[in-house]
Amino acid sequence: MRNSLKVAKWEIKRNMTNKSFIISLLSTPVIFLAFLFIPMLFDKSNSEENVSVYLYDELGIWNEVQEVVNESEINNWTLMQTKIQEAEMQNDLPDMEQSVYIALTEAGLEQGQIKMYMSDDLDKLSPYEASILEQPLRQLQLERLGLSEIQKETIANQVSVVPVSVDEAEAKGVALGEADPLKRIIPGAFAGVILFSIVMTGMMIFQSASQEKKEKVAEIILSSLTPVELMQGKIIGYFILGITQVIVWLAVALPAIMWRFELPLMEYLLVPELFLLLFIAFAGYLLFAAIFVAIGSTVEDMTATSNFQGMVIMLPFLPLIFIGPILADPSGVIAQVGSFIPVTAPAILLLRLSLLEEWPWVEIGIAVVILVISIWLFMKLAGKIFKTGILMYGKNATPKEIWKWMWA
Amino acid sequence: MTNVLTVKNLGKSFKLKQIIKNISFDVRKGEIMAILGPNGAGKSTTIRTIMGIMYPDEGSIEFNGHAENEIPRQKIGYLPEERGLYKNVKVMDMILYLADLKDYPKKKAKERALSYLAKFGLEGKDKVSVEELSKGMGQKVQFIASIIHEPELLILDEPFSGLDPVSQETFKQEIRELANNGTAILLSSHQMNVVEELCDRLYMIHRGEKVIYGAMEDVKNEYANFKCTIKGQNPITLLETIPNVLRIEQNGDVTVLYLTQDVIVPLWLRKLPEQLTVQELSIDKISLHEIFIDIATDQHQLPEGVGSHA
C-alpha cells in the first residue's frame, strides 16, 4: 500500500504541475460562471428598462390591476390609465418606445380575449407578465355571474389529479403532491456531478497506463513495485485528482447557484441520503477506473487501436440510452434492469433515486451488492490484464489476447 | 568473494514453449558478470525473472540470503533493455521519483543525482524536461536512476545500446568504479569487445540453455584457440595438407585456418609447406565475438570444446 501511495502521489504531482490539467481545472468553473452570468446580463439589460403600460380601463378594474402588479415580481412596469382608443393607439405605438397598451374592453371580456399591444422594441412579454391580468379579469367575470363567495372560491380552486400508488399512500399517509422534488433532485444531481467528474478524470488513467507502455517506463517502475501496486496507485491518484477537480468546481458553482437561484442548497444537500448517493458515485468511479486502467495497459497507440478498446472507453456513456425510458418511468422494467447491470448501475441508480419520492430499498440493496461484487471482480481481472499488458511493448493487444490474460 | 545473487535451475515457459531451462549462475560482490546470448536466447526473460517482473516456473533465486519472494527490491538497481522515461517531467523529478520507489532518502538522492549529472556531462539539466533530452542524454539519466539508490546488485540489460563511443567509455568507467566499490553487476550486452574488456565472468545462453559459464580468462584459454590468417592465392588441396587444422575458411585470397587446441605455434609454423603463397600472415586467438557468432548462427564449426558446457 505504501508503494501505491507513492505512485498516487507521483500521478497527482505530475498532473497538478501539468499545464493542460491546470487549465481544465480553472477554465471549467470560469466557463460555468460565464454560462450562468452572461445570459443574466442580457436579461437584466432588457428587464431593467422601464416599460410604460397604458391601460384603457373600460371595465373599472384599475385598482385591482394596480394591486396585482404591485404584489407581483414585476418591478419595471409604470402603470398609466389612458383614454386613448384601441384603434388610435395602434397608430401611435409604432413611434413609441418601451410601451405596452392593454385594452380592457367589454368586448374583449365577452370574447375572452384581452388584447395587449407592444411597441416595436419590445419583442414579447414573459408568460408571467402576460398572465398577470388574468386574475382580476377572472374575478370580474365571476362577479358578473352573481355567484356567492363560496361558489366563487370553489371555482377558483382548481382540481388536479395526482397518481398515488396504494403502498405509498399507506406508508406515507400524506398528500404526495406536497413533496418538494428538489429534495431528491439536488442531492442526486450533486452525486451525479461527482460521478461524472471523477469518471472523466478516471479516463486519464487510461492515458496514463497507455503512456507508461508507450514511453517504456513500466519495466523500470515494476522493478521497484508490483503491477497491482502500480495499478492501485494510479486508481487512487486519479481519484484524488478527480475529487480535487470536483471540489474546485463545486466551490465556485455552489455559491453561484445559491446566489443566482436563491436556493438553500446546503439544506437539500446535508441529508443522510447523500451518503448513499456518494457511495454509489465512488463505486462507479472504482468500477470504471478498473476498466480504464486495464484497457489502457493494452493500448500503446490510440490511433491504431481496435474498435474494441474504443467501445470499452465509451462504456460510461451507456446509461445515456436509458435516460428517456427512466425519466418516463423511474420504476419501470428498463430502470430496474439498468440498476442491476454493473456498468450502467451507478448512473441509473443516481438518476432513479433523484426522481423517486419513495426509494425502493430492496432494489437498491441488490444493485449495490452487485456493484460491489463487480468492482471486486473487475479489479481482479484488471490486475491480470495490467500485469501482462503493461509490459507488452510495441503493439496493441487484441481482444482475444486480453480474454486469455483474464483467465490465465 | 561472497555471492550476492544465486540463480538455481531457473525455468520459464510461455504457453507450451520453454523459454529458459536449467539456468544456474551466481553474481559475486564486486564483480561484473556478463550474461550473453543471441536475440531471443532468453537473457531478458532470465533478467525479468530475477527482477520479480516475471515468476519462474521452476528453480530458485536468492539475493543476499533472501528467497525470491522476500527479495528487498530497493537493494537492486535495474536498467531494462526496453527503457524510457516520462516525457513531460523534469529530469530531477524523474530521478527522485525512482529513488523514492527504492525508499532512498530524498536529500541524499538529490545530492547524488546532481553529482552524477555533472559526471555525465549533464550539468544544469536537472530542471530540464525529459522530452528535451537527446536519446543519449536520456540513456544517461536512466543509468543514473538505476544506480541512484546505491544498489548492492545492479542489473544492466544492454546498457551500451545506442550510445556513442564517448558515452560508452563513460558508462564503462562508471560500471568499473561501481564494481570496485563492491556492487555486484550482472550485465547483458551484444558488444563482445566491451564484455571481453569489462567483465570478470560470463554466462552464455542459447535457446534458453547454458552453453558457456566461467571466468573470462578461463573461457578464453579453454575455448579461444589460435587461428592463422594468410593472404595469398592458395589451392584448397594444399591447405588441407597442413597439420593441426580443424577448419578452413576461404574468402578470395584470404584464408583462415582454425587450429587445434594443443597446437604449439612456433612448431606449427615450421610445418607450413614451402609452396604456400604468403603475402601477409597473422596468428591470433579466436575472439569472444567469434565464439558468440558461432553459437548464435548454429554453425558449431569452431574448435572442439566450444559450444559445450563449461
UniProtKB/TrEMBL annotation, chain A:
GO CC terms: plasma membrane
Keywords annotated in UniProt: Cell membrane, Membrane, Transmembrane, Transmembrane helix
Membrane disposition: Multi-pass membrane protein
Primary localization: membrane
Domain spans labelled ABC-2 type transporter transmembrane: 19-382
GO MF entries: ABC-type transporter activity
A Pfam short name: ABC2_membrane_3
Compartments it resides in: Cell membrane
Domain of life the protein comes from: Bacteria
Record flagged with keyword Membrane: yes
Transmembrane segments: 21-42, 185-206, 235-254, 274-296, 308-327, 333-353, 360-379
PANTHER family listed in its UniProt record: MEMBRANE COMPONENT OF ABC TRANSPORTER YHHJ-RELATED, MULTIDRUG ABC TRANSPORTER PERMEASE YBHS-RELATED
Protein name: ABC-2 family transporter protein
Organism per entry: Filibacter tadaridae
UniProtKB/TrEMBL annotation, chain B:
PROSITE patterns: ABC_TRANSPORTER_2 (PS50893)
Keywords: ATP-binding, Nucleotide-binding, Transport
Superkingdom, taxonomy of origin: Bacteria
GO molecular function: ATP binding; ATP hydrolysis activity
Signal peptide: none
Record-linked InterPro entries: AAA+_ATPase, ABC_transporter-like_ATP-bd, ABC_transporter_ATP-binding, DrrA1/2-like_C, P-loop_NTPase
Residues of the ABC transporter domain: 5-232
Family statement drawn from the similarity comment of this UniProt entry: Belongs to the ABC transporter superfamily.
Stated name of the protein: ABC-type transporter ATP-binding protein EcsA
